[in-house]
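Example 476, ligand pyridoxal-5'-phosphate.
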Amino acid sequence: MKNIWEDSVYNENEFLRLSNLMLKELQNHLENSKNSTSKTINWNSPENELSFWLDFLNNGKKDDFVKEVLTRTIHVHNPKYVGHQVAAPAPITAITAMVSALLNNGMAVYEMGMAPSAIERVVTDEICKTIGYDKNSGGFLTSGGTLANLTALLSARKAVVKEDIWNHGTTKPLGILVCEEAHYCVDRAARIMGLGEKGIIKIPATSQFDMDTTLLEQYFNKALESGIEIFAIVGSAPSTATGAYDDLQKIAQFAQQKNIWFHVDGAHGGAAIYSQKYKHLVKGIENADSVVIDGHKMMLMPTITTALLFKNKLHAQHTFSQKADYLLTDTEEDQWYQSGKKTFECTKTMMSLHWFVLLKYYGVALFDEFVTRQYDLAKDFALIVDKHPNFELAVQPKSNILCFRYIRPSIPGEQSNEINARIREMILVDGEFYMVQTKLNGILYLRTTLMNPLTTIEHLKALLDKILAIATKISS
Ligand SMILES: Cc1ncc(COP(=O)(O)O)c(C=O)c1O
């Protein structure tokens, strides 16, 4: 009699057969993407997509599964993908993702992930060293920048606020300072923590879209006057829409002066710590109490893996403990190997494997090479956009994020948003390129994030040509 478990589901030969089949598809996909012989996206409406998969479950051929997934997904490995901030993962990290999935070590306690726990320590220590932290520092990996920012703010509250909120709940109005341009997840984290709208003190941005630090004192005092205790300030490195870096040095000085926690949301561009050319953008990060860096953004890894680093590693251990902050002492045992005590999540993937495999196979220089290349490319692209009479930059790029719009003297201001939105829509439906859009001070800009190390200036020139052709078509 056929045994479904031994003969099929857990059969190692069947595993190899399916792997070979699927890996071959992925190899073709990498080749097609690299050469842009396939579209970046074959856009389909949600309803049509749903019908396809409902039908495929009953009528599709099993062996076509990966092929269909490939046809019906966005291709971040295509150099013409210049959209949202997700990496075109180094293919070797797809293998570590598979190893993690098959071994499925849940990581909540040391025994459930001995190697990945030790590897996580190696990796996070390396990042701490590059940030410029001393031996008291440490961190862990967690599932995404959103969760990491929330965890950091929980640590901040535990460390700074005298009242024991973890055990007794909120007893007074608390707040954080953050630039109005920060990623929405900081706002969300603060609301989850019960700070409410009043507790999220948004510092206006300068004309360059970074935090206007000259306003800090004023906003801090205003909060105090209305009875809000500020316990943390968040700097963006950089913010999402325009890629502008806040002045981390100034924020660090302010935090020190006011005795509040300084957190850096470096989910996107914290990786600039590795760039010899661009690390000046994160000057002051070494004074932050906590830092978030996403592996799946500017560090060539698959979703989802984020490093949360602490200047004093003991804070990481106390975030979710019942003890009040005053019990934090340096003599305490550093339980670095007990990931689950420090992370929000209980079970997590063996995400440390991605970081380690890149360090082991390509060395730390890979991150310098990547960040520097992408930031340089954005600057080169900006030069071309800036010179062209039919394009206007929102702001000079500080990172690999570039916002610009199509302009023409005959287009009145109020029609500009409409035309640029139409351009973006037609680019999406056309599918050769993928880019996004954003609104800055009410003006709609086309937004590109240069995530792929195979994207060249020639690809970007071709994108501009395509936009010009579409604009001509729309207005004829
Ligand atoms: C600055 C910044 N912080 C946080 C996040 C959220 O990170 P994640 O998508 O890993 O949750 C993003 C995402 O784009 C971001 O740009």
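Summary: The chain has three domains: 11-78, 105-362, 366-475.
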